[in-house]
Design a protein that fits this description.
heterodimer; A: mainly alpha; 2 domains; two-stranded antiparallel ribbon; B: alpha+beta; Methylamine Dehydrogenase, Chain H; five-stranded mixed beta sheet; four-stranded antiparallel beta sheet; 33 strands; 30% helix; 27% strand; elongated
Chain lengths: 427, 598
């Protein structure tokens, strides 16, 4: 144990020492000096790093995700997962200030796909791909303790209350809706909403805005009793990994050998991610199930079209997030961003930009048209998710053992500690 | 027994820590919230007391004690504001420490209280029932979401795209209305029996025809920077080849200009125009060509949207680097502030507007040009690069074409290619051509980089573009433009090149001149005058006039061999390009305008 502590300590000190390389990542142009003596506030996003340190981040991600996968799948060590989580909080959280994170990298990837002018940084691409690939092979080991947002919630989940299955399923749709809107806004180059509403990054940077502080604080408070609320009911990257993990080749198992149905692990999962044995006794009549399945399958396209239609009708409201559309609207309605007595800074900035109102209106109209098309896809995707969830809930999956639910299991390894079964000895 | 009592002691200790840290965290959290609400609700410099004090100061502006009281109060209010900010930040750290302690205590207590997992005797949740309930609630949620979205869409119905489209259509109608009004002018005037009005109509009609660009009137005069269309060609004859400031030989007159400026003079009829500026003090000057007498000067001020603070420019560029231009009815000027003005030939304002303060770290310098009753403004500035066409009559924007380029200091060049009239612009990363009627981009070719200063030159279907640290390129124009040849031996960061069908003249800022074959790029000759040069060469017939910074005019032949015709001196430093009239040359040097001629 002392050895592990020493290793963790030395790695952390090394990371801190490497921070001195940031000195070479100077701004290309010096910041302007104000005659009034005004000092510039700190930027919201962390300072740029040298390329070598960015690659170091990728290396750290790769090593830590490999380590945690090994700890979960081979060593079955909850302690190992916990310690890796602490390391992630320190490195990806406090040291790297939560940026770049895999959750936000979805937006970089989407923006690069839809906007040819945007060149995605290789590190952002790797931060997106590596966890997806590892999930495809080993399940959601990234969520277990590498994601700093997940890790901070994991260590505070001390009094978890089980959430009813039906409520879990209903709330489980929210991350997909969040993902759909994050893609919509990134594809239209309007905003990176995942980063804007990241609840924990403010803590990591010690500069949370008030709202961020309240939301993050509330989530942490809730997280004591309802484990990982952000990961389960909000995280858009989790939604993506939820899908990928269903196809994972080597997923963690609760029992190292044959399950003896001792039920000891039944209440061990704080995330309600254990499939409880479902026997034929619980099965409904086959005819009823088939009828419902066919009906829901027929409803699915209706849900997709309805989702698309309804969301596209809401496209102008959605487009208001785009600052150009908002500005055009404010100028058109002469509403000055609701500010009375002085001109809104956005209007002043626009006036000094040299751009004409006609130009702005042309651009805004084009963006709104983009939103009209894109919101069709957003709504259709949400309709599809709801439809598929309903169909999924109509299928009876027969199984006799306690197994982790591949989609929602966060590979935290808590359940393993409860299993009395010993691994089979190879003869 | 001892072990149990130790556990009990530990439990008590951690319970106390938990309670203290929990209360501490809660209290700090509440204080932060209250502090935040307090800070947000008050504006430190806009309080009731402060406003009352300011009101009193307005009534008694000489009251120094009151002034000091306000200052002290202001300082106090600001200090209080920033202290609150500091408190919030420090509170955040304390809260964080408190939460960490609370967590550690909870985890410790949880570990100490750990009991063996018990198998629940209660019936587990029935899967089928749970799924049924989940289906029901998902359906309810989906319906609720749909209804909520539709309700919100209905309640907050914006119709923004229709409003924007209507606004854009209205703008287009307004523009077409402007052009209809303009095109109707000659017809109404032609109905009149007054012959001068008919002539004016004919002039306007001539101006409207782009096929005749540059018109005979333009050629007769010197309407813009580097002559008609800004291509560096002067059509005047009997131009003097020798003068001397020391002996006043061939110096017809010399008139002082009150404000500095690096813009070049332009000529129409018997009037010479130029501008000058120092900070926000901006003037347009009109001189009599024959006598040098200042006919009028007009202050350019009080323009709506004009910046209140002096724009930052470098000494090498100044506040009035762009040259004015004239169409014989009006003279147009633009300044580093973004102020643009049209004056009639008597110096009275016809219209004026501000195009927005250009973001330009040296200072705005692109000169104005006109074509087809439109004033062409190359506004390649930091915020948004645009090419504007303003109505010469009203100043309203006829069209705007956004450009994806860096800041440029070059000026537009307008040429007639035989098929059509084109506006040629250069800025990193490309040379591009635009239709004067619509602003539509006709072609573009990526071929340059850096901070582009020199404008392009055009001759016989070939555009010549260059920039320091980039290259000299000869572009065969057309819908599919191609680079005929390129060279990087002689490059320039200020003087523009000039060309005719047989020769291309390139001048470097250090005073080297090279002559090339325009089609093949074969270098005929090069010559080093050895003095820095910012002025652009002008071709007058087969002669090239090049003014260096010391005030020496190098006159040489555009020929296969270098033939120097003369090197007369004006006696003052000059960075401006000379203007040409019949038998006369106008030179801006030092703080003076010189007229050379017999």
């Amino acid at each position: 144990m002392q050895k592990i502590r020493n290793i963790v300590f030395y790695i952390f000190m090394l990371m801190l020492a490497l921070q001195s390389y940031d000195l070479s990542a100077k701004n290309r142009f010096p910041k302007p000096e104000f005659e009034s003596g005004h000092t510039q506030p700190k930027t919201i996003t962390p300072s740029p790093r040298t390329l070598i340190l960015e690659y170091l981040d990728v290396m750290v991600l790769l090593v830590s995700i490999s380590l945690i996968s090994w700890l979960i799948l081979k060593k079955r060590s909850r302690k190992g997962v916990f310690l890796t989580g602490i390391f992630s909080i320190l490195y990806f959280g406090f040291y790297r200030e939560g940026c770049i994170c895999s959750i936000g990298s979805i937006q970089n990837v989407v923006l690069a796909l839809f906007n040819t002018q945007y060149k995605i940084p290789l590190t952002a691409l790797l931060f997106f791909i590596i966890p997806v690939l590892y999930t495809l092979f080993f399940g959601r080991t990234f969520c277990a303790g590498i994601c700093p947002l997940g890790a901070i919630q994991d260590i505070i989940a001390v009094k978890p209350i089980p959430v009813k299955i039906w409520l879990e399923k209903v709330l489980g749709i929210i991350p997909f809706i969040y993902l759909a809107f994050a893609i919509l806004y990134a594809a239209t180059a309007s905003d990176f909403i995942i980063c804007r509403y990241d609840p924990f990054v403010g803590f990591y940077r010690f500069d949370a805005s008030f709202m961020m502080f309240v939301i993050g604080g509330l989530l942490l408070l809730i997280g004591i009793f309802i484990a990982r609320p952000y990961c389960r009911y909000l995280c858009p990257y989790g939604a993506l990994l939820n899908i990928v993990s269903r196809f994972s080749f080597i997923h963690m198992k609760i029992t190292p050998a044959e399950c003896i149905n001792c039920k000891l692990c039944e209440n061990s999962c704080p995330y309600s991610a254990i499939n409880i044995p479902a026997t034929h006794r619980e099965k409904e009549k086959t005819s009823v199930m088939v009828k419902r399945y066919i009906m829901l399958s027929l409803i699915l396209p209706v849900l997709v079209v309805a989702g698309g239609f309804i969301t596209s009708n809401f496209h102008e409201n959605l487009a208001m997030v785009n600052h150009k559309v908002k500005l055009a609207s404010e100028i058109l309605h002469n509403s000055n961003y609701g500010i009375k007595g002085k001109e809104a800074i956005e209007i002043t900035a626009f006036k000094s930009s040299g751009q004409t109102v006609t130009q702005l209106n042309t651009e805004a109209a084009a963006i709104i048209a983009e939103f009209k098309t894109a919101s069709w896809f957003t709504g259709a995707f949400i309709g599809l998710v709801i439809g598929l969830t309903l169909i999924g809930l109509s299928v009876f999956k027969y199984h006799v053992d306690y197994t982790p639910n591949k989609a929602s299991c966060l590979s935290c390894a808590r359940c393993m500690d409860y299993c009395p079964v010993l691994p089979e000895k190879k003869l | 027994m001892t072990e149990n009592s130790n556990i009990y002691k530990d439990q008590r200790l951690w319970k106390i820590i938990l309670i203290i840290s929990g209360i501490f965290s809660f209290a700090v959290c509440m204080l932060i919230v209250v502090n935040y609400l307090q800070v947000n609700s008050s504006d430190p410099v806009n309080t009731r007391v402060m406003n009352a004090l300011l009101l009193r100061l307005n009534q008694h502006p000489e009251d120094l004690a009151l002034r000091n009281e306000i200052r002290e109060f202001d300082l106090l209010a600001r200090k209080a504001y920033f202290t609150s900010q500091w408190q919030i930040r420090m509170g955040g750290y304390l809260f964080f420490i408190g939460i960490i302690l609370t967590l550690i205590a909870v985890i410790k207590l949880d570990t100490l209280n750990k009991k063996i997992a018990l198998v629940s005797s209660a019936a587990t949740e029935k899967i089928a029932e749970s799924h049924k309930k989940a289906r029901k609630w998902i359906a309810i949620t989906a319906v609720a979401l749909c209804l909520l979205t539709l309700l919100l869409a209905f309640l907050t119905h914006r119709d923004l795209s229709n409003s924007l489209s209507a606004k854009l259509t209205a703008n287009k109608k307004q523009q077409s209305c402007d052009s209809t009004q303009l095109s109707s002018v000659p017809i109404q005037q032609a109905d009149s029996s007054n012959s001068s009005v008919i002539n004016a109509a004919a002039d306007t009609a001539a101006k409207l025809s782009s096929n005749e660009f540059p018109t005979a009137e333009m050629k007769k005069n010197f309407p813009s920077f580097r002559g008609a269309g800004g291509n560096g060609i002067a059509y005047q004859k009997n131009v003097p080849l020798s003068w001397d400031a020391a002996t006043a030989k061939n110096i017809r007159w010399k008139t002082a200009i009150s404000l500095p400026g690096y813009n070049s003079p332009v000529i129409w009829g018997d009037a010479v125009f130029l501008s000058g500026a120092e900070g926000l003090k901006q003037k347009v000057y009109c001189f009599e060509l024959n006598t040098g007498k200042i006919r009028w000067t007009t202050d350019v001020k009080g323009i709506q949207g004009s910046p209140s603070k002096t724009p930052k420019v470098t000494d090498n560029t100044g506040f009035s680097a762009p040259s004015v231009c004239t169409d014989g009815e009006k003279v147009y000027a633009i300044f580093a502030s973004g102020d643009i003005i049209a004056l009639d030939m008597q110096g009275k304002k016809v219209w004026a507007r501000n195009l927005g303060l250009p973001v330009n770290h040296y200072g705005y310098s692109s000169s104005l040009m006109w074509v087809d009753n439109k004033l062409i403004v190359q506004y390649d500035q930091g915020n948004a690069a645009n090419l504007y066409a303003l109505s010469c009559e009203t100043g309203k924007t006829v069209w705007t074409t956004p450009r994806k380029v860096k800041i440029s200091w070059a000026s537009p060049v307008i040429v007639n290619t035989g098929k059509r009239t084109e506006i040629l612009l250069i800025a990193e990363p490309y040379v591009a051509s635009y239709d004067p009627a619509t602003g539509k981009e006709l072609w573009k070719i990526e071929c340059t980089s850096g901070e582009v200063g020199p404008s392009v030159a055009y001759a016989n279907g070939i555009v010549f573009a260059l920039n320091e640290y980039a290259k000299l390129v000869a572009i065969q124009i057309g819908d599919q433009p191609k680079i005929l040849w390129e060279n990087n031996e002689y490059l320039s960061d200020v003087p523009s090149p000039v060309a005719n069908n047989n020769y291309l003249i390139v001048v470097t800022s250090s005073g080297e001149v090279a002559c090339y074959h325009p089609k093949t790029g074969e270098k005929y000759w090069s010559h080093d005058f050895g003095s820095p040069t910012y002025s652009s060469p002008v071709m007058v017939g087969d002669k090239v006039f090049l003014m260096d910074k010391k005030g020496c005019m190098h006159i040489f032949k555009a020929d296969k061999t270098f033939v120097l015709l003369g090197e007369p001196k004006i006696g003052e430093s000059s960075v401006c390009t000379p203007a040409f009239a019949e038998g006369k040359i106008l030179i801006r040097a030092g703080n003076n305008l010189y007229c050379i001629g017999k």
